[in-house]
Specification:
The chain is an alpha/beta fold. The protein has 10 helices and 11 strands. α6 links the parallel β6 and β7. It is elongated, with a radius of gyration of 21 Å.
Length: 293
């Protein structure tokens, strides 16, 4: 069964001859966010009346457990934590109040895997990348990401002051993450990194001495060292890469008809200062962490 937020497509024209004689196969979808609507598409983003998976509802996906500081007490619906707060802010911008938002558990790697989606958008610290864009659509970025290194206090890894210092360490990161991309593409360690299905497993490996250090996004690194592995520290962060830098984006079905509307909502929240205010409220300031070069 096709999902409601996918554009309708007419069956292929019966024959090539008919194609030549007619005006074409479509009508092509030009709804907000559709393949032919790369712009903000606000003209038809009627508040609370979008082509969502469930009529009158906005279905939001994220993984479980839902980690701090992105969510509070493993409860995405609570509105506490940066990503929970961002999801509800986007929902309000689109015309959906809190009661009209339904949460759905979506494993991290499934969120950006090819195929139809049962959510309207997914929010789970997923970085926008050209590779992922081949399978799903993204909103504009709602958070500018820095990757960071976490190691046990007093360890050799804790003394690292440069990328070169990391190259002879056993590093670990979550599978499919941009943290792992940084390990492979930026650090390029002498030994293969340890790859984990969940950050929880990476943290256990760090505590057990199976890896020297783990990589994760900076806010998660702060939370790990302040609340979960208190004998660990944030060793350093990596400089932003690329022209626009790494950003987290909301993930949508590749053919979603509401991508333009969601992007317009995120852009409005960035412009009016809402995203900055939520970041200040829920995430720790990164200025004090040294940049590894």
């Amino acid at each position: 069964m096709r999902l409601a937020n996918r554009p309708l497509r007419l069956a292929a024209c019966a024959t090539v001859a008919l194609l030549a004689a007619a005006v074409g196969c479509a009508p092509q979808d030009e709804s907000p966010g559709g393949p032919r609507a790369a712009g903000p598409g606000q003209q038809s983003c009627a508040r609370g009346k979008l082509a969502t998976v469930a009529d009158g509802k906005l279905t939001v996906g994220t993984d479980k457990p839902a980690y701090a500081p992105w969510f509070h007490d493993d409860d995405p619906a609570g509105g506490k934590g940066f990503e929970s707060a961002v999801a509800y802010a986007v929902a309000r911008q689109l015309g959906y109040d809190k009661g009209a938002v339904s949460w759905q558990t979506v494993p991290f790697n499934n969120a950006f895997a090819p195929g139809e989606k049962k959510f309207d958008f997914d929010i789970n610290q997923i970085s926008i990348s050209p590779e992922r864009k081949r399978a799903v659509a993204f909103s504009s970025g709602y958070y500018d990401v820095r990757q960071a290194v976490v190691a046990l206090k007093g360890s050799k890894a804790a003394g690292a002051r440069s990328i070169t210092d990391l190259r002879h360490l056993k590093l670990g990161a979550q599978v499919g993450s941009t943290s792992l991309d940084v390990v492979n593409d930026t650090v390029r360690p002498a030994q293969s990194p340890a790859v984990f299905q969940k950050n929880d497993l990476a943290k256990s490996a760090l505590k057990n001495g199976q890896v020297d250090a783990i990589l994760t996004d900076l806010p998660t690194a702060f939370y790990i060292t302040s609340a979960e592995v208190k004998d660990a520290e944030v060793v350093g962060q990596f400089a932003a890469t690329g022209g626009d830098g790494e950003q987290f984006g909301l993930v949508l079905d590749k053919e979603s008809r509401i991508t333009g509307c969601v992007t317009a909502a995120v852009d409005a929240l960035r412009k009016n200062g809402t995203l900055a205010a939520l970041e200040k409220k829920w995430l720790t300031d990164a200025v004090s962490v040294p940049v590894l070069k």
